[in-house]
Amino acid sequence: MKRILPLVVLMGLSSVAGAQPVAPMNILPKPLAMSLLNADPRVASARSTMDAAMLEAGIIRKSPYEWNATATGQQRRVDAGPNYNEWNVGIQRTIRLPGKGQADQDISGATVKLADATYGEVRHETARELMTMWLDWLASEHALEIANKGLASAKESLAAVEKRNRAGDASKLDVSLVKAEIADQLRQGNEAKVKAAASWATLSRRFPGIDRKVVALPVPSSELGQYETWRERILAESDVLRRVEASLLKSEGQSARAKADKIPDPTLGVFTASEQGARERIYGVTFSMPIPSGTRSARYSQAMAQESAARQDVDLIKRELEAAIASDVEMASGAYENFRIATEGAEAMAQNEAQMQRAYELGEADLQSLLLSRRQAVTSASNALQAHVDTLRTHLSLLIDAHWIWGLDES
């Protein structure tokens, strides 16, 4: 309950318990995101790997044994007597005992589940990569806008200083200071431009097909939702958890197989033979079976140890997921509060800069105060942008983990 309380205060709860949290507007459209994910080479590779695993599962379901045909030809030579051509033909096959067939069915089913979970995990991680790169690029474009606004403001300040200088109310040093400020702002603008270009180059080459369309940053939703809602959904949709659970099922099947293998599979066959020049015909059956050794028991013990390790892995992943979910929900709620505070601060600083500019033009403020207010406005705007991006990143990460956006629940 202590963990949920901050969410009630800072974010508010959904009006209906367990309701799906609202995704921010203006994120990448679902059709575009699904197209980019499906075309990604890593996802395509995982899909091919899944196809191979499906074939492997089919092979496991079938008996590993095949029919074995035998044929022998010989000549019997008798001293001072005739020679006889003789032959022997037969067919035999090792029989998979019933208990082993069921174990193979279990291993086959677990192989399919493991392949599906692995594919989903790759698609999930690719979606997180897409989200991160898209946000980084969009943030860099908006950072460039802030830098350009700062440059325009600095040029406005220069015009005001030059006007006062011509009126004899400002020194040449003041003009030089503002020009130096403009030079620094130009440097910052160039850095922002380079970063935006680099971010776009990374995004567009990693995910070809996305348009360079700068949009307003999505507005984070104040309705984050309940912790229990996120926990239940993410645990139910987690591909990592499904993967280790499938590995456990496979280990259980392999343990059952190893236990059944303590009794070797028998080999049955039939044969017919011709001896003494076809004067004797022989018909018979064959039976063979390996004599088990301690190796089979050792393999069963090994399989049981691996099953125990797989069970511990499931418990570990559940704990790690629950810890991560709790941390992410807290971070998301805190990030939204930071975004709200930073936005209010940026608006206040922007108003202060405008008022200080007007005051300087009227001779009611000095140059240092004007430059300080401009720097504070640019810094607060940058801080607000970073807080905005951090909030979106935490919220979208939760939505991706819950498979509530971009059709991840349809993979």
From TrEMBL:
Residues 1-19 form the signal peptide. Keywords: Cell outer membrane, Membrane, Signal, Transmembrane, Transmembrane beta strand, Transport. SUPFAM superfamilies: Outer membrane efflux proteins (OEP). Pfam families: OEP (PF02321). One of its GO terms (molecular function) is efflux transmembrane transporter activity. One of its GO terms (cellular component) is cell outer membrane. It is found in: Cell outer membrane. Its main location: membrane. Belongs to the outer membrane factor (OMF) (TC 1.B.17) family. This is TolC family protein. It comes from Pseudomonas putida (Arthrobacter siderocapsulatus).
